[in-house]
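Hypothesis: this fold can be encoded by more than one sequence.
Test: take the structure tokens below, design a sequence, compare later.
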């Protein structure tokens, strides 16, 4: 096929289950992630040749549970370099599902282009019966090549749905529809070459974001509140030089009294503390379950603890002023 008239899409592979391999096609667990290279991933989807002209790069070959801030920096900068080229109309990133939502949100706030960036993944390894990776990859390239995806920020194409990077989260350990956007719902869908957006992204992102990836990242950790919680972890993190702590609180970001006392001491020592919720959906109201004004803590709003960590890392790296403004905005 003559590809000279097809849109040119860069596919950046980082590993994950979509590149996983197992010895038994009937098994969807116990596989090795990140084994299959990007060329084999693309070869498994012949239909791509009718959708786009592909430029492929292997950025990493990891299980996404091992994602690092250093790799985030490498990935974001390479995406910006590619999108600055006139012939590249969009980028697709293949990724593991475990930390996909964190990488997607990081890119959503740091990529400096209106061109589409679409992440995709798989819940079943490439060797499994009914592997979901090939169709997810085809759909992701289809979305990245669509003019309607321009200006929507970083997207996640998974199981025929299109999600905003800010809203999407993994909700199942095994199901092929593992990714959902609990509070806002999907942005749209992609099926059989058709891309339809049913709403647009409202919060600032990409070129409208004040943030960029860093060469050195501040230490930010997540601590969970639960029955009989202690302040031991908070005290240890403060002693280790942590710059920020995100609390995965109960309910509306509430915290055990002992933990609250330790966090109050941490704030007095200059540590930024953000209250999120471990619940999985809903929002954390400022002063709703804790006296943020008195404690000096920050509400994460609708961000889950792991995305709140991403935003806090970016804000601290940029020496952003008024952290509550940052969380209210992004």
């Amino acid at each position: 096929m003559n590809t000279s008239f097809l849109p040119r899409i860069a596919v950046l592979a980082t590993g994950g289950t979509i590149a996983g391999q197992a010895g038994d096609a009937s098994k969807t667990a116990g596989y090795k992630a990140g084994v299959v290279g990007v060329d084999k991933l693309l070869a498994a989807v012949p239909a791509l040749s009718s959708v786009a002209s592909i430029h492929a790069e292997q950025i990493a070959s990891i299980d996404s549970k091992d994602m690092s801030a250093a790799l985030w920096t490498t990935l974001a900068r390479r995406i910006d370099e590619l999108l600055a080229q006139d012939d590249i109309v969009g980028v697709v990133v293949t990724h593991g599902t475990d930390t996909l939502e964190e990488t997607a949100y990081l890119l959503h706030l740091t990529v400096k282009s209106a061109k589409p960036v679409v992440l995709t993944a798989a819940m079943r390894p490439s060797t499994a019966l009914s592997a979901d990776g090939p169709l997810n990859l085809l759909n992701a390239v289809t979305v990245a090549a669509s003019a309607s995806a321009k200006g929507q920020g970083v997207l996640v194409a998974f199981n025929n749905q299109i999600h905003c990077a800010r809203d999407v989260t993994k909700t199942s350990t095994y199901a092929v529809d593992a990714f959902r956007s609990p509070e806002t719902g999907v942005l749209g869908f992609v099926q059989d070459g058709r891309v339809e957006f049913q709403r647009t992204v409202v919060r600032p992102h990409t070129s409208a974001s004040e943030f960029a990836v860093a060469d050195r990242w501040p230490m930010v950790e997540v601590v969970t509140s639960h029955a009989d919680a202690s302040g031991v972890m908070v005290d240890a993190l403060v002693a280790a030089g942590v710059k920020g702590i995100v609390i995965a609180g109960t309910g509306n970001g509430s915290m055990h009294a002992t933990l609250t006392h330790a966090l109050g001491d941490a704030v007095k020592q200059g540590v930024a503390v953000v209250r999120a919720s471990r619940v999985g959906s809903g929002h954390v109201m400022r002063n709703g379950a804790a006296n943020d004004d008195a404690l000096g803590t920050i509400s994460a709003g609708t961000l889950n603890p792991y995305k709140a960590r991403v935003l806090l890392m970016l804000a601290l790296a940029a020496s952003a002023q008024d952290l509550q403004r940052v969380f209210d905005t992004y």
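The chain has a mean pLDDT of 96. The domain at 8-208 is CATH 3.40.50.1170 (Rossmann fold).
Hypothesis status: open.
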